[in-house]
User: Which sequence fits this backbone?
């Protein structure tokens, strides 16, 4: 069976140990977490975890069921099964000595990202986009020398219009 | 009414129906122990916390109620972990209360502090740390609710010492408060699936029921038996399912899997419909999983969705509590009883199964002057008429018991199936004896396993519990030795128990009775004498050193690859 990347949106009770229960489930059963985001929702006491993971259908089915089995998990949606929007954000601190700066800025422009901090010979770039876009940006900037990188995991949300033609 | 946390805890236990608590005191639970005498609860003081958790587990398995165990923080708590994992693997409802260091000290590496909630997260159904006495009553209620509902399991509640001491105005939470939006154990079977199942049964010509522990925990033996007998469907069961169907019924095939009977494994491999009820396709049952039941449509009824499609892809999954599923199925099948002659439809199959049974029945080779372990089990069966509660340790003793006792009623066979915990049987027998003071409770043991919790002799003697221990003494860690013999060129490394206590003297030293049996003709008389005594008894039965358990399907092989006697 084909291994695919899945984005799981997991609504949980926000109580101590929740993260460890979820993370422990993955490690204990040999499942893989590619990225994980957690933040509170509008509802008090409820948090949303967005987990990206890789596996064939049987593995993903197990992961979803195992997550649902946790007493602290309220809801699990596999966003790969529906139409969804997905984004990641990254900060990249890149070398930008005088001779290179203009070229770095041009790339920043093309990718419609922002410079959020400037140093004598470096820039910090903020970018938002799909995983693929950010990977492309990082690849392009790599030849100037990336000093530091901080990247969120994937965030995703189900689209309002599910029935439109693809 | 103003109570302290300790009183709240004990009051809640009582209202949950707890009568007996198995435990061991310590600094972090002394406040709870301070209130036990006035609580009306019976406390059984064990000699090691592993004994407490296994006893609570044995109590639960024998009675169907939730078992309860109370231990102190740190080492007291960690000593229960093996028992918690044992209960978890076999889906046994137990509530474990652990003391914890006072809340201000948590995280400081305080004396006897361990993160028991962290340690037991992967081996409990759920667990709690109670940080405020106001949450205590609701937490205890939820712990019992979780332990007994859905797929049952152990739930741990960690209660810091200052929470035990804090005062609170006691109010018992009502049922509506227990419910959790994040926990909805599915119970009722889907009607469409039920109809599809009925159709599959109607079409099948070689149907087989493969029953597991879920039939016992859901209390649906009667429904299962009805289904089998009315529709003329042969039944096999896992180790955990033994007793869910009467072994004296002609449709009973015996246990399946690694040490299953020839007929049960043959039936699985040739059936055209396998109805798995409350079982989970464990590797010890399926053998090489890709070759399991190759000719069959598989139906899987289980209350836990994660069990379904985990090890085996089934044709018809049905998430439901076995009791509801079998009850509804019974109703559905009733519609066809007038028009379909199930006995005739399945006659060839039942005859075929009967032929396999005769071809290779369970058997052993008797030798003059030698006590065969299988003969000991048969004798125990004869003397108890199948009415005893039988516990086992782990290894050959467990498999011989499973094969030769012939269980006829649910909750009469207590054994660590999923985890295979040596040292389980004796404390579990203590728990079962507490649940049924008037029944005969026997632990069938190996000489290795019994030494893992032998200290509980003091517990049994102290509480006048007439538990019988029958040691099938081969001087070896027999099951491991069997593997070494068959698959490791008889390299008997570290499986010979060369130094052994004199079990008779040991029993006597504890104030129990001890007998030794060395001749086959003494077996029955000695067991009879032991069973009649109103005392804790050890019977040390000397069996051959190198007797093996057969049939055997070597690990990873297909169920057709059986080694026979
Ligand atoms: C706590 C624990 N440790 C180790 C094992 C591995 N093990 C499985 S069977 C067995 C031998 C048991 O020997 P004994 O109790 O003498 O029983 P016999 O097989 O001889 O009947 C061992 C060591 C286990 N199941 N549990």
Assistant:
């Amino acid at each position: 069976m084909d291994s695919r990347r899945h984005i799981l949106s997991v609504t949980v009770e926000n109580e101590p140990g929740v993260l460890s229960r979820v993370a422990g489930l993955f490690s204990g059963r040999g499942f893989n977490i590619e990225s994980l985001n957690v933040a509170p929702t509008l509802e008090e006491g409820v948090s949303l975890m967005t987990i990206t993971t890789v596996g064939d259908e049987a593995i993903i089915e197990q992961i979803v069921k195992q997550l649902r089995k946790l007493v602290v998990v309220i809801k699990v949606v596999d966003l790969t099964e529906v139409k969804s929007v997905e984004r990641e954000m990254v900060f990249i601190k890149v070398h930008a000595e005088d001779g290179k700066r203009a070229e770095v800025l041009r790339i920043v422009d093309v990718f419609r990202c922002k410079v959020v901090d400037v140093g004598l010979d470096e820039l910090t770039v903020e970018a938002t986009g799909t995983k693929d876009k950010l990977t492309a940006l990082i690849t392009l900037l790599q030849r100037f020398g990336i000093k530091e990188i901080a990247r969120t995991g994937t965030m995703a949300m189900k689209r309002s219009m599910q029935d439109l033609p693809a | 009414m103003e109570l302290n946390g300790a009183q709240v805890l004990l009051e809640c236990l009582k209202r949950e129906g707890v009568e007996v608590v198995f435990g061991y005191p310590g600094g972090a639970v002394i406040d709870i122990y301070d209130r036990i005498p006035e609580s009306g609860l019976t406390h059984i003081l064990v000699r090691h916390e592993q004994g407490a958790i296994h006893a609570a587990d044995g109590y639960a398995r024998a009675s169907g109620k939730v078992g309860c165990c109370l231990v102190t923080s740190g080492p007291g708590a960690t000593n229960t972990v093996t028992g918690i994992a044992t209960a978890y693997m076999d889906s046994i409802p137990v509530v474990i209360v652990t003391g914890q260091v006072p809340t201000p000290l948590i995280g400081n590496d305080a004396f006897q502090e361990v993160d028991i909630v962290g340690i037991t997260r992967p081996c409990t159904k759920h667990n709690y740390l109670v940080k405020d006495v106001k949450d205590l009553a609701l937490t205890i209620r939820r712990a019992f609710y979780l332990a007994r509902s859905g797929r049952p399991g152990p739930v741990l509640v960690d209660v810091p010492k200052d929470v035990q001491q804090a005062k609170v105005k006691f109010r018992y939470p009502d049922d509506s408060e227990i419910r959790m939006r994040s926990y909805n154990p599915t119970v009722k079977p889907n009607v469409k699936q039920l109809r599809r199942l009925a159709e599959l049964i109607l079409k099948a010509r070689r149907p087989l029921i493969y029953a597991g522990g879920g039939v016992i925990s859901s209390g649906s033996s009667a429904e299962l038996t009805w289904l089998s007998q009315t529709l003329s469907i042969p039944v096999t069961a896992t180790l955990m399912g033994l007793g869910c169907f009467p072994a004296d019924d002609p449709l009973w095939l015996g246990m399946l899997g690694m040490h299953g009977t020839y007929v049960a494994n043959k039936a699985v491999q040739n059936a055209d419909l396998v109805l798995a009820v409350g079982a989970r396709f464990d590797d010890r049952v399926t053998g090489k999983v890709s070759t399991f039941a190759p000719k069959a449509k598989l139906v899987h009824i289980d209350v836990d969705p994660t069990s379904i499609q985990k090890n085996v892809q089934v044709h018809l999954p049905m998430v439901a509590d076995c009791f509801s599923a079998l009850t509804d199925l019974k109703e559905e099948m009733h519609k066809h009883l007038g028009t379909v002659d199930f006995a005739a439809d399945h006659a060839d199959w039942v005859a075929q199964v009967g032929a396999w049974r005769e071809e290779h029945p369970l058997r052993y080779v008797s030798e003059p002057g030698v006590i065969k372990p299988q003969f000991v089990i048969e004798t125990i069966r004869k003397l108890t008429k199948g009415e005893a509660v039988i516990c086992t340790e782990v290894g050959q003793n467990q498999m011989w018991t499973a094969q030769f006792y012939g269980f006829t009623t649910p909750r009469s066979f207590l054994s660590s199936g999923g985890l295979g915990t040596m040292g389980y049987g004796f404390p579990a027998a203590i728990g079962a004896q507490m649940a049924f003071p008037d029944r005969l409770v026997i632990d069938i043991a190996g000489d290795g396993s019994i030494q893992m919790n032998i200290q509980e002799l003091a517990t049994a003697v102290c509480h006048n519990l007439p538990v019988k221990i029958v040691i099938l003494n081969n001087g070896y860690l027999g099951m491991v030795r069997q593997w070494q013999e068959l698959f490791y060129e008889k390299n008997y490394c570290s499986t010979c128990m060369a130094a052994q206590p004199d079990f008779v003297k040991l029993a006597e030293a504890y104030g129990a009775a001890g007998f030794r049996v060395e001749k086959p003709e003494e077996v029955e008389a000695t067991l009879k004498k032991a069973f009649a005594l109103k005392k804790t008894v050890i019977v040390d039965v000397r069996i051959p050193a190198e007797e093996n358990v057969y049939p055997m399907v070597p690990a990873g092989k297909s169920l057709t690859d059986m080694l026979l006697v």
